[in-house]
Amino acid sequence: MRVRYLEQIVAGTRAATVTEKAAKSTLVARVKKLRWCFWHANVQKAESRMREILLICRIVVPETSRFGESLSQLDYRTRELVAYVDCNGGSTIPYAKRHRAGRSISTAMAESAVNQVLNHRMCKRQQMRWSPRGAHLLAQVRCAVINGDLSERLALFRKRMNELPAEVAAFLGHLQRLEEALPQGF
């Protein structure tokens, strides 16, 4: 979505002179290549493209005020994108690879389902609200259902539950003996 902002800014720039038109065509090409970099999860190339865009924004001398405003807005949004990539660069998704493999590239269906359920249950007018932890656990289950791996995750969970460490098993046994020793209704 952040690349889309850059595309809209560049498309909306009004270049009046030859210099501005050349700068705009160069920016259009750079932003288009930037989208390709993110589609293929190539963060290094994306960083290089963003530096080129920032350089162009800073060295081009605008001859009209509208073009200057567009360049400053593009500079601001590009710096914002650079900061975002610095923080989240390790979690980029190779959308092209997923698309070629026939896998989904959008999380919209899962997000919509989770938002619908959570908004209904977390509404303040509900008699029974969920805790944030309960809502998070429900979201995990719903995502597993949509991904089709709920049964695998449950089997893994059951396997982990059967493999309790000795200290935990001893503690749970001690708690169970205490519970049995308590009088009824306590």
List the helices and strands and how they pair.
Elements: H1 2-12, H2 18-39, H3 43-59, H4 65-88, H5 95-100, H6 108-122, H7 132-147, H8 150-162, H9 166-181
Fraction of residues in β-strands:
under 5%
Cα-atom Rg, whole angstroms?
A: 27 Å
> How many strands, what sense, and barrel or not for the largest sheet?
none
Terminus-to-terminus distance: 57 Å
Give the SSE order as H and E letters.
Answer: HHHHHHHHH
Q: Mean of residue pLDDT?
A: 82
Instruction: Tally the helices.
Output: 9
Sum this structure up briefly:
This protein has helices at residues 2-12, 18-39, 43-59, 65-88, 95-100, 108-122, 132-147, 150-162, 166-181. With 186 residues, the chain is mainly alpha-helical.
Would you give an account of this structure?
- This protein has 186 residues and is mostly helical.
- The protein has two domains: 2-96; 108-181, no CATH class.
- The protein is built from nine helices and no strands.
Give the tags.
186 residues; 75% helix; 2 domains; mainly alpha; single chain; elongated
